[in-house]
Amino acid sequence: MTQNADHVLDHFDLFRGPEYQEMLANKRKMFENQRDPAEVERIREWAKTEEYKELNFSREALTINPAKACQPLGAVFVAVGFEKTIPFVHGSQGCVAYYRSHFSRHFKEPTSCVSSSMTEDAAVFGGLNNMIDGLANTYNMYKPAMIAVSTTCMAEVIGDDLNAFIKTSKEKGSVPDDFNVTFAHTPAFVGSHITGYDNAMKGVISHFWDGKAGTVEKLERVPNNSINFLGGFDGYVVGNIREIKRIFETMGVEYTILGDQSDVWDTPTDGEYRMYDGGTTLEQAANAVHAKATISMQEYCTEKTLALVKDHGQEVAAFNHPISVKATDAFIMKIAEIAGVEIPEALARERGRLVDAIADSSAHIHGKKFAIYGDPDLCYGLAEFLLELGAEPTTVLSTNGGKAWEKKMQALFDSSPFGKNCKVYPQKDLWHLRSLLFTDPVDFLIGNTYGKYLDRDTGTPLIRIGFPIFDRHHKHRYPVWGYQGGMNVLVTILDKIFDTIDNTTNIAAKTDYSFDIIR
Amino acid sequence: MSVAKTESVAEIKARNKELINEVLKVYPEKTAKRRAKHLNVAEAGKSDCGVKSNIKSIPGVMTIRGCAYAGSKGVVWGPIKDMIHISHGPVGCGQYSWASRRNYYIGTTGIDTFVTMQFTSDFQEKDIVFGGDKKLAKIMDEIQELFPLNNGITVQSECPIGLIGDDIEAVSKVKSKEFGGKTIVPVRCEGFRGVSQSLGHHIANDAVRDFVFDKLDPNKPALFESTPYDVAIIGDYNIGGDAWSSRILLEEMGLRVIAQWSGDGSLAELENTPKAKLNVLHCYRSMNYISRHMEEKFGIPWCEYNFFGPSKIAESLRKIASFFDDNIKEGAERVIAKYQPLMEAVIAKFRPRLEGKTVMLYVGGLRPRHVIGAYEDLGMEVVGTGYEFAHNDDYQRTAQHYVKDGTLIYDDVTGYEFEKFVEKVQPDLVGSGIKEKYVFQKMGVPFRQMHSWDYSGPYHGYDGFAIFARDMDMAINAPVWKMAKAPWKQDKLEKLIAAE
After folding, report:
1. Kind and range of the H or E element at A45?
2. Do B192 and A3 touch (CB under 8 A)?
3. Which of the residues B42, B49, B67, B189 is marked catalytic?
4. How far apart are CA A92 and CA B196, in angstroms?
5. Residues 6 or more apart whose Cβ sits within 8 Å of residue B146
6. Does B122 reach chain A within 8 Å, measured CB to CB?
7. Residue B217 and residue B208: Cα distance in Å, rounded?
8. Is there a catalytic annotation at residue B374?
9. Phi, psi at residue A315, to the nearest 5°?
10. Can you tell me the mean pLDDT for B224-241?
11. pLDDT over 90 (residue A1)
12. Average pLDDT value for residue range A280-307
């Protein structure tokens, strides 16, 4: 017996005991109809080959380990960024359980969201009654200031019309006539969570700016000097939004964060549960129409939203998840240009500190090869930063990156001598990446938690940057935007590089001559 | 934190009833009437808990429930390790359920084992418009090419499949034939079917019956010679290794476990099971269907058991042994005696730290009742409990064997109700899921996830109980809960109370 009351063994130690090992070996041998271990080994080796890679890349129908989620997740992300707003997803209820769990596992925070709980009868007759009852219940129970409706694929397949349903619900008295119910159709079989972000954000903005679905006059734009800010779908939203606010305030620029999740996903433990906290106020959302310009940090998250904003006469600018010095320079200069302000010396000092840090450390990164995967903008921002560090983003893969993104990535590679041997892979998944890591090995991998399987199988150390991060805590509290964000990314990369060097030079009398105390 | 200790049972019942009436006030009339049927106070001597169950959730209330797909792919089929489970439809369902249930297994992932992978047909608009059957057939070809050591395929239907009229049964049949009789299982677990995960369990059970049992080749040579002591573990998903810390006890008492359903399970084990002399059933809710089927079809008796906490484990070992000869009965006593010192040491260490603490639970499957004994072994008391997707037979078992007079019962609880109940009852610990965890921790209430064991476990068996006890102590007695109130705010509060 290995278990012990004084020193309780957890699963990782318990099952390594001889009793369990013997039991598991017997189970495998006697009852599992186990494959010949030599055959398993042969296939394991074959899966590393060029031949397997070609077979793998010839896949046309099967997706394995994709790095993307579905549209409504992005819609829920948008909704919780507005004052006292509850996301209401019209369709099957299981989806909502998944979105809530997914966000809670990443942020380690509660995520409130309701479903219209459609079942078989709704599949036949449509979900109107579910919408009518659902809005009434949500309104009475959770006293929201706004309900943001999106759809699951079920409601989309049967063709439920959100605009009409919400109107009818209001007529039936589910919520008061003037109560804000925004909506966005977010079919899971189109695009990904970043498309859902775009559709939902566009839904909220057009609701406030364009006459609340025909119920009030459209807003007349009276231009002011303010700047609207769109973050896009962002796993670092808590740290990032706070950093962006600080930058705006340091610059003395008037701004509106459209969709501010930084409080609701970072509430204190002080005895009170805050279902709602912070967020863009509804008044701010409406007044944002008057802004001089709208800036997006993630071009591929906000294509439709920015088009809508542009139609209202605002200047728009889109970035690709700026992390590098150059990208943050462009972002800061753009804000200064729009607002007509001088960039304060404080930011120049911050910039100088990041350049200083890069100068101190780049020798450890220079020439190293990286594979990156994630959402298209994040991939771009990381690749841009690596090029700046003299590293090679050899393999850049995005399951939800399209043709336009592919072209843009290639142009980025072409702009740097370090991009010469780099390749971009749009619409590919992590099983494709597994092959690439065998046939075209790199030194490090950057990606989300699921990358740990690639780390295990290919021995490529994983640097965790992306969404979701389930198996490390609190990373979302640290910005990856602004010069400070660049610093955090730099340190995250360096920590893994140094740990890897240490872990490969620590065998006494064999490799530990390189186990240096100063690096 | 407990306020309940000094109250009599009558007072507790009155308070709980009042509490139920209070939460119902928030609802529109129609909803209040419907919700009232799911909330009650347990009465000693009654045959069930006095609540309705397995009824549609009400739109817009924030139910905690999932769907049929979650019940089939997420619970029953997903852990079968040597088969590839296709999440058939759009990308999300498979993504959110990817490797999140901690079904431990041994095997080379991606080569002969596939549990922690996400295979999806990633439906696009054209698949909705033109149907996905051709794509599904092609997916199966690609699986055969890239994963030659897979032992079978299941098709886990997501919502659109049933709505667009795809014929996954036909595709599966054709491909099975093409691949020389390979096991290919179409599962109609579209998320909109039924009212919760529960129907997904049932559909998944039926799929095992139709596409594994009914296709068994009687001429296929047996993998092993039968013994009189062959049993199968049914309804243990090996979360954090639960089935392993259970199996070891059954084997130590002299039984031979020929199959695990479905944690660390394989297709061969499913196929072995009709040879069992007894099916031992842990999660009744999710696998009673197949147990009943095997009883009818193969004459295999089944027996429910509970491996949480030493009292229930001993009771269960004796119950299981009662189906066998004296060898096994002696074996059960030997096992109980072997672990007695460990259990005494665990209880001696943790019970003094946990005595009298109160717990509220809200979980799925079997846990809202099964873990009560384990808490009681530690001197703790469960003062409220409820199920996500129980049927009335679960509430009968709960009332007859587990809960105390006056326990607050809540079926398919809403976010609002659960929050209010905990606020008023003020338990020392809440045990529920990831969606609830942070709500209660913000309120300053210690919490343990009782689906995933909060990334700990196993909790089953004697080895698991040591971990369970340590975890509950760690949750309740963590210093952090004393820090929730800022000292300057605490002073103010105390001054206010003093002034009163």
Report:
1. helix A37-46
2. no
3. B67
4. 10
5. A52, A55, A56, A59, A62, A431
6. yes
7. 15
8. no
9. -75, 140
10. 98
11. no
12. 98
pLDDT at B7: 83
Q: Is the pLDDT of residue B2 over 70?
A: no
Instruction: Tell me whether residues B247 and A2 touch, CB distance under 8 A.
Output: no
> What chain A residue is nearest to B462 in terms of C-alpha separation?
A3
Distance between CA atoms of residues A17 and B171, nearest Å: 45
ipTM at complex level: 0.98
* Shortest alpha-carbon distance between residue A483 and chain B (Å): 32
Q: In whole angstroms, what is the distance from residue B135 CA to residue B427 CA?
A: 52
Position A143 pLDDT exceeds 80: yes
Closest chain A residue to B259, measured at CA? A31
Q: How far apart are CA B363 and CA A332, in angstroms?
A: 49
Sheet holding A315-318: strands in order across? A255-257, A227-230, A293-296, A315-318
Is the Cβ–Cβ distance between B285 and B307 less than 8 Å? Answer: no
* Residue among A457, A178, A160, A468 at smallest CA distance from B113: A457
Q: Is A153 a catalytic residue?
A: yes
Contacts of B97 in chain A (CB under 8 A): 98
Q: Which of A88, A95, A269 is closest, CB to CB, to B60?
A: A88
Across the interface, whether the CB atoms of A153 and B159 are under 8 A apart is answered yes
Q: Do B109 and A457 touch (CB under 8 A)?
A: yes
What span, in angstroms and rounded, lies between the C-alpha atoms of A420 and A382?
Answer: 16
Q: Half-sphere exposure (CA, 13 Å, Cβ side) for B407?
A: 33
d(CA A196, CA B90): 14
Best B127, B192, B439, B472 residue to mutate vs chain A (most A CBs within 10 Å): B192
CA distance B56 to B34: 10
Is residue B312 helix, strand or coil? helix
Are B463 and A2 a contacting pair at CB < 8 A?
yes
Specify whether the CB–CB gap between A377 and A327 falls below 8 A. Answer: no
Which tokens sit at A464? 């965790």
- The two structure tokens encoding residue B154: 């299941």
Residue whose tokens read 């009170």: A272
Please indicate whether, in this complex, the C-beta atoms of A101 and B433 are within 8 angstroms of each other.
Answer: yes
Q: Which chain A residue's Cα is nearest to B165?
A: A157
> Which of B31, B121, B159 best tests the A interface by mutation, with the highest count of A CBs <10 A?
B159
Contact in structure between A88 and A147 (CB atoms under 8 Å) = yes
Active site residue B460: no
Does residue B429 contact residue B237 with C-beta atoms inside 8 Å? no
Is pLDDT of B1 > 60? no
Task: Report the distance separating Cα B397 and Cα B285, nearest Å.
Answer: 11
- Dihedral angle sign, alpha carbons of residues B232, B233, B237, B239: negative
Alpha carbons A395 and A442: distance in angstroms, whole number: 8
Please calculate the CA angle A489-A492-A493 and round it to the nearest 5 degrees. 90
Q: Is A461 left (phi over 0), alpha (psi -120 to 50) or beta?
A: beta
CB atoms < 10 A from the CB of B1, how many? 15
pLDDT higher than threshold 60 for residue B285: yes
CA–CA dist B257, B244 (Å, integer):
11
Q: How confident is the model at residue B4 (pLDDT cuts 50, 70, 90)?
A: very low
Which tens digits make up the pLDDT trace of A404-443? 999 999 999 999 999 999 999 999 999 999 999 999 999 9
Choose, from A89, A153, A204, A309, the residue flagged as catalytic: A153
The CB density around residue B233, as the number of other CB atoms within 10 Å, is 30
pLDDT at B211 over 80: yes
Q: Cβ B266–A33 below 8 Å, yes or no?
A: yes
